[in-house]
Amino acid sequence: xxxxxxxxxxxxxxxxxxxxxxxxxxxxxxxxxxxxxxxxxxxxxxxxxxxxxxxxxxxxxxxxxxxxxxxxxxxxxxxxxxxxxxxxxxxxxxxxxxxxxxxxxxxxxxxxxxxxxxxxxxxxxxxxxxxxxxxxxxxxxxxxxxxxxxxxxxxxxxxxxxxxxxxxxxxxxxxxxxxxxxxxxxxxxxxxxxxxxxxxxxxxxxxxxxxxxxxxxxxxxxxxxxxxxxxxxxxxxxxxxxxxxxxxxxxxxxxxxxxxxxxxxxxxxxxxxxxxxxxxxxxxxxxxxxxxxxxxxxxxxxxxxxxxxxxxxxxxxxxxx
Length: 321
Prior knowledge:
- About 5% of the residues lie in helices and about 70% in strands.
- The protein has one helix spanning about 10-30, and strands at about 40-55, 60-80, 85-100, 110-125, 130-150, 160-180, 185-200, 205-210, 210-215, 220-235, 240-255, 280-290, 290-305, 305-320.
């Protein structure tokens, strides 16, 4: 029932958008006869996620539910030199959730929590062969966390505790991408390795009405993951391209300098806070009109049989020439 942590909600969910789209678009120019020189792509992404988690063992349980909003803005497909492109993005993620934890003999604990994340990240893509690419990602982010906790709520022994905290994180990833077109079908696949580290400051819970404080030690977390993703699209015409995609999430390594606090998260991406393997599936459609591409997508994420999430994504790309 312990929860672990990763920095980016967008890495798995938006990797298909940020990395897969550009190799495909380069190939699409050949099939449509459009050969204008694209300097770079302006890109914006918005997503809304709702999620639920519940783990039960005998009379004990741990559950949480909530939602998050993610905003991404940047430039992609920047030509650095022949065969080498890159992108630079900023993003903000806001998450709110409520949790309930009952582990005997500790009384019921209910927590309301909000997390606000601001990050900067970039990537470089190298063309190896006609269909094969290597991609390197890196980024840095800062988090602001707010907690409000009720212990033994609605009883004579009720205690209220509040706390604020900050953390920072960095991550790097290396991926191999394969993209090809067969008739009107577009296939893209990726195998990725991600390493993330976070350092969370120490903080203090203040309990009322007993005026008791509880100091929490700083946290250092190191984690690594494997991702296997694939997407298949079908080009109906120059404007419309529906697609389906899916992927696996595999936990490779976790290390924490102290136990995580039950009932709280330290990331805006809950499904990656779980020390369990999982999968995601999605579907959507691309609308392309001259220099503008709009991508609409719905994804479902599951980790073991305890966590479920629905993710709605809107991506807008404008080609600058």
